[in-house]
Specification:
alpha+beta; Beta-Lactamase; 13 helices; five-stranded antiparallel beta sheet; globular; 2 domains; 5 strands
């Protein structure tokens, strides 16, 4: 929680909250004193929160901090979960294993998404199911190897990953943020994967765990270097299923005309079957 608050404070410009920018700032973000003033708490209390010496602020203080930091609805929910997760041994999943069974209706949904590259992930980033469009895209890259395939393990443990992802650092950040958005090490299954990657990937993984607060992007554009199709720019959208499923659906669409044509060739569809999205 302290890391999340500090990162959001440092990423918020004074002008965004009506404060003078000034010229003698060591960082572009808010000072602790400014956040404290906006939230109506003491500087000492903000310091304790950011340093992890107070992990359970009241709902009223959380609300004031969220207002001061201009948090989105999703960020507010994440902040609330972080405070709940600070309780020793707390896990809303109560040690439940990650879901690996896919409902028939979800499989039918994937089938109807063809030829779109789409896949279903659990909280460990295990790949549970996918469209044939995704298989033709990801199979040659090695993303579907393993039983089950795991995207985070591929990014940090497979030598091909830095070639597959031209923006590897950004992708690695997103994979760690996704792993941390839940109870993280309070979940024994996530903790086991994190321990494994700490050993196999070293500081490339462990350093991100220390500095990234969680909350990955649910949409964006990702670049892939495909051996048969060249560089692809894929717009992705992440759709969460119900809490009982504990799964998320990730759908990829071409972000430009060149990628649209390349995906049509990969999937064997008529030109224009997958039109590029913009905006």
């Amino acid at each position: 929680m302290g890391l999340f608050l500090r990162v959001r404070r440092e990423g918020l410009a004074p002008g965004e909250v009506g404060l003078p920018t000034g010229t003698r700032r060591r960082t572009p973000g808010l000072r602790r004193s400014e956040l404290a003033m906006l939230a109506g708490v003491s500087v000492e209390y903000v310091t304790r929160l950011e340093q992890g010496r107070d992990r359970r602020p009241s709902p009223q203080v959380l609300s004031a901090l969220a207002d001061a930091l201009r948090l989105t609805a999703n960020e507010r929910i994440h902040l609330h979960r972080l405070t709940k997760g600070a309780a020793p041994g707390f896990s809303c999943l109560a040690g439940a294993p990650p879901a690996r069974t896919v409902r028939a209706s979800v499989l039918a949904l994937l089938d109807r998404l063809e030829p779109v590259p789409a896949l279903l992930l659990n909280r460990l980033s295990d790949v549970l199911a996918w469209t044939s469009g995704y298989e033709r895209l990801a199979g040659p890259l090695g993303l579907l190897e393993g039983t089950p395939p795991n995207l985070t393990r591929f990014v940090f443990s497979d030598d091909r990953a830095r070639t597959v992802y031209p923006d590897w650092d950004l992708v690695a950040d997103q994979r760690v943020a996704a792993l941390k958005q839940g109870p993280f090490r309070a979940d024994p299954h996530v903790a086991a994967l994190a321990d494994e990657l700490t050993v196999t990937a070293g500081t490339a993984f462990a350093g991100r765990v220390e500095r990234l607060p969680g909350l990955p992007r649910s949409n964006g554009v990702e670049r892939l270097a495909h051996p048969g199709a060249g560089e692809l720019r894929l717009a992705y959208e992440t759709l969460d299923l119900t809490a009982d499923d504990d799964q998320r659906l990730v759908v990829h669409l071409p972000a430009d005309d060149a990628t649209s044509a390349a995906l049509d060739r990969l999937t064997g569809r008529r030109p224009g079957a997958l039109r590029a999205v913009s905006g």
